[in-house]
Amino acid sequence: MKTVKDIMSKDCVTATMKDNIYELAVLMKNNDIGFVPIVEGRKLIGVVTDRDLVVRGYAQKHSGSTGVSEVITKDIKTISSSTSVDDAARLMANNQIRRLPVVDNGELIGIVAIGDLAVREIFVNEAGEALSSISEQEHRESAAFH
């Protein structure tokens, strides 16, 4: 049985509460990512997504010098590295999550993304269903604004 440890990305780009939203935007641009875990040492505090920067940051007329505390999401789901890939896929599908921090003993050790599940042939259906479910909700949300 494959576990999350077998498929997760271990080289995580992170930031701290001392950073500001401009620095996070540059970090995302330079690393071609849309998700940054916020840590204190190795302890996961929360995450900031590119959507968080737009919706809670710039669209609220916050300047680039605004602190991470204004845009961070602290109530996040996490999994341990020993979680089965099946369970991770189910959790992501049920909660419509694209990226899931992997935390052992309170420390961030990796990230599992929906794409990590999709490359595993045996889990393509679960990843496809999760992505489809997420995309359907995003489409419904964006349709409300168009």
Structure explained in plain terms:
With 146 residues, this protein is an alpha+beta fold. It has one domain (4-143): CBS-domain, CATH 3.10.580. It has helices at residues 4-7, 21-31, 50-57, 85-95, 114-118, 124-143; strands spanning 35-40, 43-49, 99-104, 107-113. A two-stranded antiparallel sheet has the order 1-2. It has a two-stranded antiparallel sheet with strand order 3-4. A hairpin with a 2-residue loop joins strand 1 (35-40) and strand 2. The chain is globular. The model is unreliable at 142-146 (pLDDT under 50). It comes from Paenibacillus abyssi. Residues 8-64, 72-129 form the CBS domain. Pfam families: CBS.
Short synopsis of the structure:
This is CBS domain-containing protein. The chain is an alpha+beta fold and 146 residues long.
